[in-house]
Design brief:
There is one protein chain. This protein is about 65% helix and about 0% strand. The protein contains 17 helices and no strands. α2 packs parallel to α5. It binds ligand LUO. The site of the ligand COc1ccc(NC(=O)[C@H](C)Nc2nc3c(cnn3-c3ccccc3C)c(=O)[nH]2)cc1 has 12 residues, from α14 and α15.
């Protein structure tokens, strides 16, 4: 029971668990959100789906199955923290969780800049006309898996996820939203719809869509909102993957992104810049939608202390390091 509670918080430590145990933890999340009953998904269909997902993540330093779990677990934590089960439809939550599980399927460890580079011109860049090639590929693999998963009752999972009722966003839109080159576009869209946000108005599907895209973005890049002993190894994994790419780019005479160059990256200063200019603004915009949640009124202190402490520690870090 303690484990089930901990699974709903940002302090959960993925490094303590083997992949087989993580598979079970993913099932626990889908079960605790009542997807099994509300979408009559058979447990073995969910297991089959999650195993196919596991098979299609690659053994690369960062964008691997553990990253898929972290993003899904952060999404799960945000759903409970913001009480989204009482604010969104079940189908929206299913799309958010399934998108998180699928969002980096078959990632090659080389980012879009590499894919689309005129001298690399990978197969994915050609297939998707240089438009978010990786994210389009993650979606395509997700639907390949959903087509394959049987028995028929999992068709309900496939059907639900293809459902486009009232313009509700599909996994594709959520997964495509993780392309960081669209960061400002998606953040500004959310800012523009925020004043009109009304959870009681079920017709506001474009508001829900904007929220779902922000939530998967936050979940995707929020390792730094976790305790240092969980976050630090993730940064090392990310830099390992980035340095591998920039080493190959140097060998192939391709342009090298500065934040990927092992000879140029300074961990503290690049992370301070990332937290200050990318991660905190994202969290603060999300907090505007859930004032009671993130601004820590006395009434709910116990439930969210870990969240505010995790984020507050980042605020303190930023101010101490005086990176103004
Ligand atoms: C606006 O587009 C951007 C902005 C920032 C970055 N990346 C960075 O600033 C550097 C590499 N730091 C960084 N990047 C991170 C983190 C988590 N995810 N993440 C990441 C991973 C792959 C692709 C893009 C990002 C942001 C993190 O904790 N730090 C990459 C793209």
């Amino acid at each position: 029971e303690e484990l089930r509670q901990n699974l709903k918080t940002p302090t959960f430590d993925n490094w303590q668990w083997e992949d087989a145990e993580i598979m079970v933890l993913l099932q626990v999340m889908f079960t605790d959100l009542d997807f099994i009953s509300s979408f009559n998904i058979e447990p073995e269909a969910l297991q089959h789906f999650l195993f196919e997902v596991y098979r299609r993540y690659n053994n690369i330093p960062f964008h691997n199955f553990k990253h898929c779990f972290c993003v899904t677990q952060m999404m799960y934590g945000l759903i409970w923290l913001t009480d989204l089960r009482n604010k969104l439809e079940d189908i929206d939550l299913l799309i958010m969780m399934t998108s998180a599980v699928c969002h980096d399927l078959d990632h090659t460890g080389y980012n879009n800049a590499y894919q689309v580079d005129i001298n690399a011109r990978t197969e994915l860049a050609l297939r998707y006309n240089d438009i978010s090639p990786l994210e389009n590929h993650h979606c395509a693999v997700a639907f390949q898996i959903l087509q394959r998963v049987r028995p028929p009752s999992s068709a309900s999972l496939c059907f639900q996820l293809h459902l486009n009722h009232l313009g509700v966003s599909w996994p594709p839109e959520c997964i495509l939203a993780t392309d960081m080159t669209r960061h400002n576009e998606i953040l500004n869209k959310f800012k523009s719809v925020l004043p009109a946000f009304d959870f009681t108005n079920k017709e506001h599907k474009d508001l829900v869509r904007a929220l779902m895209m922000i939530l998967i973005k936050v979940s995707d890049i929020s390792n730094e909102a976790r305790p240092m002993e969980v976050a630090e190894p993730w940064l090392d994994c990310l830099l390992q993957e980035f340095f591998n790419q920039s080493d190959v780019e140097k060998l192939e005479g391709l342009p090298v992104s500065p934040f990927m160059d092992r000879d140029k990256v300074n961990k503290p200063s690049s992370q301070i810049g990332f937290i200050r200019f990318v991660l905190l603004p994202l969290f603060m915009e999300l907090a505007n939608l859930f004032p009671l949640t993130f601004n820590d009124p006395k009434g709910h202190r116990c439930k969210r202390r870990r969240w505010t402490e995790a984020l507050d520690s980042k605020f303190v870090l930023i101010s101490l390091l005086g990176c103004n």
